């Protein structure tokens, strides 16, 4: 260390020299040696650069180098990112992943092998031939299933997701589309017509009953009351002729 030590340093240094740079850092900063050609210069940083990890001591905070195969690390024995050509597994950088694991070239990590998973088969479809369900005796029916989990590079591949088998049905003629549509339309019109007819009849019946009821009420109001019939016994009483 150069004997010329200064107290008025720049860049976070607590003490420094013109030849060696920072000799100590201000509180909470990390001291690290940077190589410039054949010379090492001390600098003070708020965090350690890539390839270094920080350790804190009562008198100084230092940045120390990670292992040679490690790009970033938490401690010297625990890597968080490996250099090119190595795969990260449990804090270590490996050239080859252990058995039961596979190398993920995207994340450069050793990951678990994932096998394909599929859903249950769907029910068999109706027996069909050329997209129709009539006009034939022998056809095909199919069923399908979906892929729930796609496999990883070393995982078991997915099986077929469709199955087909022969089927036999009782032969029946196909109804012409135009004729069938026409018949359906006629049935619908007839049904609407019958419903309208029944509705009209019900309305007429209600109107007739209402009119009859009103007519009877009017007749009762206008018809004079009948006189009480005379007592037949009084009419047949004998006449007094003594006078």
TrEMBL record:
What's the chief localization of this chain? secreted
Pfam families found in the cross-reference section: Furin-like_2 (PF15913), TSP1_spondin (PF19028)
Molecular function (Gene Ontology), one example: heparin binding
Question: What residue spans carry the Basic and acidic residues bias annotation?
Answer: 175-219
Instruction: Supply the Gene3D superfamilies for this chain.
Output: Hormone Receptor, Insulin-like Growth Factor Receptor 1, Chain A, domain 2, Thrombospondin type-1 (TSP1) repeat
Q: Could you tell me which residue ranges the R-spondin Fu-CRD domain spans? A: 11-110
Region listing for Disordered, in residue ranges: 174-243
Keywords of the record, alphabetical order, are: Disulfide bond, Glycoprotein, Heparin-binding, Repeat, Secreted, Sensory transduction, Signal, Wnt signaling pathway
Q: Which GO terms describe its biological process?
A: positive regulation of non-canonical Wnt signaling pathway; Wnt signaling pathway
InterPro entries per the record?
Answer: Furin_repeat, Growth_fac_rcpt_cys_sf, R-spondin, Rspo_Fu-CRD_dom, TSP1_rpt, TSP1_rpt_sf, TSP1_spondin_dom
Signal sequence, renumbered to the chain: none
Q: Which residues form the Spondin-like TSP1 domain?
A: 116-170
- Give the domain of life: Eukaryota
Intracellular or extracellular location(s): Secreted
Query: A GO CC term?
Result: extracellular region
Quaternary organization? Interacts with the extracellular domain of FZD8 and LRP6. It however does not form a ternary complex with FZD8 and LRP6. Interacts with WNT1. Binds heparin. Interacts with LGR4, LGR5 and LGR6.
Q: What is the similarity comment for this entry?
A: Belongs to the R-spondin family.
- Role played: Activator of the canonical Wnt signaling pathway by acting as a ligand for LGR4-6 receptors, which acts as a key regulator of angiogenesis. Upon binding to LGR4-6 (LGR4, LGR5 or LGR6), LGR4-6 associate with phosphorylated LRP6 and frizzled receptors that are activated by extracellular Wnt receptors, triggering the canonical Wnt signaling pathway to increase expression of target genes. Also regulates the canonical Wnt/beta-catenin-dependent pathway and non-canonical Wnt signaling by acting as an inhibitor of ZNRF3, an important regulator of the Wnt signaling pathway.
The protein's name is R-spondin-3
Which organism does this record belong to?
Sterrhoptilus dennistouni
Q: Which gene encodes it?
A: Rspo3
